[in-house]
Design brief:
Methylamine Dehydrogenase, Chain H; 393 residues; mainly beta; five-stranded mixed beta sheet; 2 helices
Length: 393
C-alpha cells in the first residue's frame, strides 16, 4: 500500500472523532486564575494578567500560553466598550469597599474636616429628602453635615429633589455648595460654618468655577455668579446651563463646556464667562461609531478632563451609556455601553483621575473606573444608594 493511500485511509477513519475543546478548557482555566486588579492611591494603572500554562515535554517544563481576553475589557466595536458581567475588583483609597455611613458619625460643627474626597446624601430606606449629607475625609472617616439648615430643592411646580448635586464639592475638597429655594448654602468644611446667600429663584443646580465662585441655576440655560466669601451675587451674561456642565477647577482654564442634545440640535458648546455668545459650537459627530449608538440626550453634567475632553452619561437608541466627547470638534471618541435593564439616570460621571481614567457611579456596580484608552472597567465599591459628589486630590 502506498503512502498516499495510507494517508487517505487514516483521514477517513478519524473524520468522525470530534476534536478536543482546548479553547474552552483554556478559557475556563484562565477564568480561575484571573488576578484581581488594584488601583493605587493616585493616578492608577490597570493591567490584566490572565495566563494559562500547559505542560510541554516529559520533564515538567511549563510555558505560558497566549493570554486570555480579560472580561473587564470587552470591546463591542471600535470606540465602544461594554460593561462586563463580572467586573474585576479594585481599590481606590480612601474609599472603602462599601460606602456605609456609621450611625455615630461625628458632627461637622464639632469636628471640622481638613479636606473631603466625597460627599454622600443617602437616598435609600425611607427616601427622606431631608437626610443629612455626610463627607468622607482623606482619612477614610465619615462626618455628618449638621449645619446650614438644608432642605430639598424644588422647582416652580413644587417638585422636590435631594439638595446635594454631583458637582457640589469644591475643587479643593474644602467646601460644599448646596442649592436651596431662593438661596445658595456654602458649607466650609474646615470651620464647620455655613454661609447662606440669598439668590432669587428656585435654584436646583450648582457648579464651581475655581474655589471661590459658584454658578447657580435651574434646569434651563442661565446662571448667576456667587462669590461665597463676600456673598456677592452677579448676573452672568453667558447662557450656559448648570444642568449640562460641570464647571471648571481653574478660573483661568478658558471656556466652560456643555453638551446639548435636543430635537433641533446636538452639539458641544463652549462658553467664556461674561460673554453672551458661545465661544464655539461643534455639531456632535458619531460617524466613527456603530449606528445603534446615536445619542438622544445627555443626562447630567459634562465633566472636563482639563485636556479638551468631557465625559457625561447619555441616553439614546442603546440603553444608558457613558460617553467621552472631544469638546472642540464634537467627536464622540469613546462609549461604555452599560447594557439593558437600567433606568434612565441610573448612572453618573463623577471625576477624571489622571489622563485616561474616569470615575463613575452606576446603579448595579457602585463606583467604577473606566480606562477610556484601554476599555478596562474596574469595580471599586459595592452599589451606592445616594447622591454622590467626588473630588480626588
Amino acid at each position: 500500500m502506498g503512502t498516499n493511500r495510507l494517508t487517505e485511509l487514516l483521514e477517513e477513519t478519524s473524520s468522525g472523532v470530534p476534536a478536543p475543546s482546548l479553547a474552552a478548557t483554556a478559557w475556563a482555566t484562565a477564568r480561575r486564575v484571573r488576578r484581581r486588579r488594584r488601583l493605587t492611591a493616585g493616578v492608577a494603572a490597570f493591567t490584566a494578567a490572565v495566563a494559562v500554562a500547559v505542560p510541554l515535554g516529559g520533564d515538567g517544563d511549563r510555558r505560558p500560553a497566549p493570554p486570555a481576553v480579560s472580561p473587564s475589557a470587552v470591546a463591542v466595536a471600535p470606540g465602544v466598550d461594554a460593561m462586563p458581567a463580572d467586573p474585576a475588583r479594585g481599590t481606590l483609597p480612601p474609599f472603602p469597599e462599601t460606602l456605609t455611613i456609621p450611625a455615630d458619625a461625628p458632627r461637622l460643627s464639632r469636628h471640622p474636616v481638613d479636606r473631603a474626597v466625597a460627599v454622600l446624601q443617602r437616598t435609600e430606606s425611607t427616601g427622606d429628602l431631608d437626610d443629612a449629607p455626610h463627607v468622607l475625609g482623606l482619612d477614610g472617616r465619615w462626618t455628618r453635615i449638621d449645619v446650614g439648615d438644608l432642605g430639598p430643592t424644588r422647582d416652580e411646580d413644587g417638585n422636590q429633589a435631594y439638595a446635594l448635586r454631583s458637582t457640589s464639592l469644591s475643587p479643593d475638597g474644602r467646601r460644599v455648595a448646596v442649592p436651596q429655594p431662593q438661596a445658595l448654602v456654602v458649607i466650609d468644611l474646615t470651620t464647620g460654618k455655613a454661609h447662606r446667600i440669598p439668590v432669587p429663584g428656585y435654584q436646583e443646580k450648582v457648579m464651581w468655577w475655581g474655589d471661590g465662585t459658584v454658578l447657580v441655576g435651574a434646569n434651563g440655560p442661565g446662571v448667576v455668579r456667587v462669590d461665597w466669601r463676600t456673598g456677592t451675587v452677579t448676573p452672568e451674561p453667558a447662557g450656559i446651563s448648570a444642568w449640562s456642565s460641570a464647571g471648571s477647577r481653574e478660573v483661568t482654564s478658558g471656556a466652560l463646556v456643555e453638551l446639548v442634545a435636543s430635537e433641533e440640535k446636538r452639539m458641544a458648546r463652549g462658553w467664556v464667562l461674561g460673554d453672551p455668545s458661545p465661544a464655539w459650537e461643534a455639531p456632535i459627530d458619531e460617524s466613527a461609531l456603530p449606528g445603534g449608538y446615536r445619542i438622544s440626550e445627555w443626562y447630567g453634567p459634562a465633566v472636563p478632563d482639563g485636556a479638551g475632553r468631557v465625559a457625561a452619561a447619555a441616553w439614546g437608541r442603546r440603553p444608558e451609556m457613558l460617553t467621552v466627547v472631544n469638546a472642540r470638534t464634537g467627536v464622540v471618541e469613546r462609549i461604555l455601553d452599560l447594557g439593558h435593564g437600567r433606568t434612565k439616570g441610573c448612572c453618573a460621571v463623577l471625576e477624571w483621575i489622571g489622563g485616561d481614567l474616569l470615575l463613575a457611579k452606576t446603579d448595579r456596580e457602585g463606583l467604577i473606573t473606566w480606562n477610556v484608552r484601554t476599555g478596562v472597567v474596574t469595580q471599586v465599591t459595592t452599589p451606592v444608594q445616594g447622591v454622590l459628589s467626588v473630588r480626588m486630590p
